[in-house]
Design a protein that fits this description.
Radius of gyration: 15 Å
Order of helices and strands: EEEEHEEEHH
Helix content: 25-40%
Structural class: alpha+beta
Largest sheet: 7 strands, mixed
Distance between the termini: 32 Å
Oligomer: single chain
Number of strands: 7
């Protein structure tokens, strides 16, 4: 078994959530949250910010750690057990540009209920739900966008 760690972000701008559409040779297709692999010596929050920037072109600010998800999948010779650490992040515009080299063909900001139904994976839906509730709590307290919480 191969163990892998990734980090990603639930990026919000004006209440909408940033999603990516991946189409890998028509085999792997669907809407996902931006995430990627931790590089040697890199802190998780730095990985999350870097991967969001690489995959979407968005320079997002980390607000708060929201938790981790775990899943496994098979590759030709082995099984990969992956752990993903997620951060609630804030963007300062609706701009995004999908990273073509990673087979992302579209990106955009969606209302919560749209994003929830578009997401391909149940574990990402759970993280979205948790992050969005954190966002609403911060917004209700007039703390959204004022400082960092991680």
């Amino acid at each position: 078994m191969i163990e892998a760690t990734s980090c990603g972000g639930v990026v919000i701008f004006r209440g909408k959530i940033l999603l990516l559409y991946k189409n890998y040779r028509n085999k792997y297709e669907g809407w996902v949250l931006p995430k990627g692999t931790v590089e040697p010596g890199e802190e998780y929050k730095d990985t999350a910010a870097r991967e969001v920037k690489e995959e979407t072109g968005v320079d997002a600010q980390i607000i708060k750690y929201v938790g981790k998800s775990q899943y496994s999948f098979t590759v030709p010779e082995d099984t990969v057990k992956k752990q993903v650490h997620w951060y609630l992040m804030m963007s300062d515009s609706y701009y995004s540009k999908p990273q073509r080299e990673e087979f992302f063909v579209d990106s955009g900001y969606y209302k919560y209920h749209e994003a929830y139904h578009l997401l391909k994976f149940a574990n990402e839906k759970q993280i979205l739900e948790k992050a969005y509730h954190e966002y609403l709590d911060l917004k209700r307290s007039n703390l959204w966008g004022n400082s960092k919480y991680y």
